[in-house]
Amino acid sequence: MLRCLLRAQNFELATRGFTTFGAYRSISSQGAPFNGLPHHHAVTSDTEATRQQLELDPNLEGFFDDDLVESVKKGAKSDSVDKDFNDLLDPSEVPILGKDDIDPSTFAPHSMPGSPVTMTTEEFLSQLKNQKPIQEQEPIVRSIFRNTESIKKNDPPLPTTSELPELPESFHVHNFERFIDFMHRGDIPTPKSIPKNASLESLVESDLPVGFISRFNDPRLNLSIERYIYKHLPDPKNNRFAKRLVLYRNSPCIVIGKNQNPYKEINFRMANMYKIPILRRYSGGGTVVHDLGNVNFSFIADKSLFNRTGFSNILVERLNALVGKTYLDYNLPRFILTTNSKGDIVDAGNMHKVSGSAYQLSGGRSLHHGTMLLNVNMKLLSGLLKLSKETKKCVEDRCIDSVPSPVENVNMDEEVFEYSCVNAFASSYGVPSFLKRPGFDNVDVLKFGNSECQVVKVDDLDELPQEVIDEYNTFKSWEWVFGRTPKFKLRFQAGDELEVCLHIDHGKVKEMELSRDEPKLDRLSERLGDVLFRGDKVAELIDDNSLRRTFAWNIDQMLDYEGLGVSQ
């Protein structure tokens, strides 16, 4: 028993930086010193080396007494030098104690009352027969791409699959696991894992239904990819199966509608502090805030199929089938959803919006894209769109205003939602045939019932056509984001007696009205019609520090355009 204890202690020392060879050897001269102890290059015997190691360890001070050391020495003499010590915790020498041997004095000096007592094999088998059989749990397979916390000792045991609410057959669990594997395949590259990808250009003109999922988080790049896919949809009249689903998630950004005025929609001050990019999309609708807790989905099809709630209703049906269900450690929807007359997806209980929609119709095509608030930072969302009443009153225009609505998160995992979108799209618009399995790493085929469609993972910049890059440069240009704003007027007070009204059209100051003459604004007056409506550009033409700061603040709160990624 004592030799077993020493072997265990020797094993523990080995894991702290010491090296053992054979039975009990001297500490390796190359081992790192432990707690400042010197290396020992030579000792009188193996057992003596072990004793010195243990006695010099400050963590074991007072543990050994003389009787125990003598017992160790005697045991070492009786050991055979040829004994195999590969198993440092060999239990063969542990004595078998029966019910008559439970006197504490028969144990090692430091045994405590209540220590476990071994029993004979016959007694163990007899006791085992009187116990209830152990119910083996069904295995619960977790995706290697989920971030799961370690199970604590006091946590309740994981439920078996039979105890979980049954998922609907329409969910197709095997497809979900395949989808997760496909989306993350290649995330951890190896020297030989060079992906073989099909180019986006070769896929967008397919006459079959295709789902595109961008793994980029750059909002300008995602909008460029979406627009490219929309523009290259084959003529719907001759390609009735050609429909598209586009999914992507953006890093934090603000996106305004095509005909909106950012000067009365956006809190420039907060956007400037947090360096939140501002974008203008090609479709109409109101201003929205994106972050990685929001998934954007777009349904592209023939113009004749346009319906504000068409794809939304199909998606809602799939999501509602998951309410109250459980699958592994994924978060599924917590409440029933429905659509309102505007085409938005809302909580059926309180009518709070969880998804807003925007639309575009052109060239015989239709585009319905929406946001889905899954795990969005609500505080940031509301702050970036919050303006004082005084600020809004300063702007006079005829632009379409955003209509504030109460919103909430669905609180479901982003990947479950993305898969649900693919499920809804393929089940409703897939083709009833066996598509050829592609030989590319970024293309897969998913089948739901008798319908299937291709799924494309967009994650390689080298595979993007130049047209996407050109669109990207447009989305980041000042002329598109701010210069595209319809004409408006901006009124503000510049001092106690000076009232200013600037007339802006196509991003330039065309006219300036003053309540009195102000010579310090003469240079600005001379450049009217040419100067950009930017705080920094206007301030350069003002000959007074106080007025310069007042103009810059009232125009755009001194927005750092370069810091927000906006090009000249």
Automatic annotation (TrEMBL):
<feature type="domain" description="BPL/LPL catalytic">
    <location>
        <begin position="239"/>
        <end position="433"/>
    </location>
</feature>
<comment type="pathway">
    <text>Protein modification; protein lipoylation via exogenous pathway; protein N(6)-(lipoyl)lysine from lipoate: step 2/2.</text>
</comment>
<dbReference type="InterPro" id="IPR045864">
    <property type="entry name" value="aa-tRNA-synth_II/BPL/LPL"/>
</dbReference>
<dbReference type="GO" id="GO:0017118">
    <property type="term" value="F:lipoyltransferase activity"/>
</dbReference>
<dbReference type="InterPro" id="IPR004143">
    <property type="entry name" value="BPL_LPL_catalytic"/>
</dbReference>
<protein>
    <recommendedName>
        <fullName>Putative lipoate-protein ligase A</fullName>
    </recommendedName>
</protein>
<comment type="function">
    <text>Catalyzes both the ATP-dependent activation of exogenously supplied lipoate to lipoyl-AMP and the transfer of the activated lipoyl onto the lipoyl domains of lipoate-dependent enzymes.</text>
</comment>
<dbReference type="InterPro" id="IPR004562">
    <property type="entry name" value="LipoylTrfase_LipoateP_Ligase"/>
</dbReference>
<dbReference type="Pfam" id="PF21948">
    <property type="entry name" value="LplA-B_cat"/>
</dbReference>
<dbReference type="GO" id="GO:0009249">
    <property type="term" value="P:protein lipoylation"/>
</dbReference>
<comment type="similarity">
    <text>Belongs to the LplA family.</text>
</comment>
<dbReference type="GO" id="GO:0005739">
    <property type="term" value="C:mitochondrion"/>
</dbReference>
